[in-house]
Amino acid sequence: MSTKTETNSTRRWEQIAQELRADIASGRFAPGTRLPNESQLAERFAVNRHTLRQAVQALVREGFLKVQQGSGTWVRELVLDYALQRRTRLSENLAEAGERAERELLAHERCAAGSWAQALKVSPASPVELLYTRSTVRGRPISLSTAAYPCPRLAGMAEAFQRERSITLAFQTLGVADYTRLRSSISARLPTPAEADALARPVSQPVLVVHYTNIDLQGQPVEAACTLFASDAVQLQVEGEL
After folding, report:
1. What are the residue boundaries of the structural domains of the chain, listed by start?
2. Which H helix or E strand runs over 50?
3. How far apart are CA 237 and CA 80, in angstroms?
4. What is the 8-class DSSP label of residue 216?
5. CA 56 to CA 77: how far, in whole Å?
């Protein structure tokens, strides 16, 4: 009997943690805001305070929340320093900050290079593989990327990325041992409604826009891309020569 009760209790606090995690990711509880007090949350989820505290403690361990004695429970600020340098890597940037990103493939397509042609040093009619990805940290979207890869050399990039869950590893499986940043250009603008929705931000909040080109060890372009960063979550730092 006690085992069954413990199992049900465990499931309930995990469900509560999942719902609170979703509230934070969607912006219902924004970074830097205080959560409702224990009584209000316990009433919302119809549980006792012990079960609620288990959920809160789990989110504290995961980095979503912080508890300040005498002040309450707060949603942790998510401000990441993202370094633009010759060897720019999302996972390494975030690892240095003690964070871990999840990057998902939203869509991909094969098309003519068009506006990507100049950066990739190919003709506008040459085929490229386009990948549309989104990166999240602590369940919150921080960036959207559109990246073009020249074909036939990097045909299959989408499949390789889905398998490896990493652009760097996907490159390696397709014969690009290493790559560096040739150039980056930075600007800012307001997002479109679709971009704001994908980033779970209001359309009134600007995004940082980084256009960049990566080259292989022989100096040949292997990636031309544009990444939109949520301006409330990312601070771009330019380090060294790009």
Report:
1. 2-75, 80-238
2. helix 49-62
3. 10
4. E
5. 16
